[in-house]
Here is the input.
Amino acid sequence: AAPESVEPKAALADFLAGNGAADKAEAELKKFAAAEEDGAAMKLALAKFHETQSKPDAAEAVYREVIEEQELKPDGLTARNRLATLLLQKQDIKSAAALIDEVLKENSRDNDALVLRGNLALAKGDAPAAIADLRAVLRDQPTSIPVLRALARAHLQNNELALAEETLRSAAQSNPGDRQVRLELSQLLTQSGRAEQARPVMEQLAKEAPSDVNTLDSLFRVQAAMKDLAAARATAETIKQVRP
Here is the structure.
């Protein structure tokens, strides 16, 4: 019905892989990629499939093939961003940075590349550069949780506590179901001496996920900071039960 559409073909591969036929799924994607006449959307889908199957080397080979074929066309830029992400996972910072620079030289507003460069700057301790890149992305994606969380970390690194809190609150409002954002906001409140504000959030998070040790540990620290030693002891006992 929609022979040019990538999504149903990728969905077919996911379905086959999810039902124990990963080899057949890969064969289908390769067949679709070979029949592609314009662009490299199916090759990109094939590479992403390799990633989901924990085959980073196979994914890297396909991304490099797309880069060679598509050069600086949109699919070539997408392949560069995804390959840069893979290289960062391998700690190949220099090669990843070179790919990111190639993308931004061609399109200075490429959000994926800006996020990657922002996170690289954050890892190197260059908070102002990270903030500039991440804020540029937020102009197009104002409710992106990963970007907001990264921006909050950059503000913290830059000793801008109020801006970090404002950013995390914005992220929590955009997606109240995101537990990690609420946890990071609670931890920030605790660090800034407002344990009494953090405690109800922590207690709710612990209620939602009673076996999450990170949440329980944060709750323990809040209770200890408030000198509620009985509650802190009870939380510590819970942690021992969850992770003996």
About this structure: Residues 74-89 form the longest helix (16 residues). The mean pLDDT is 93.
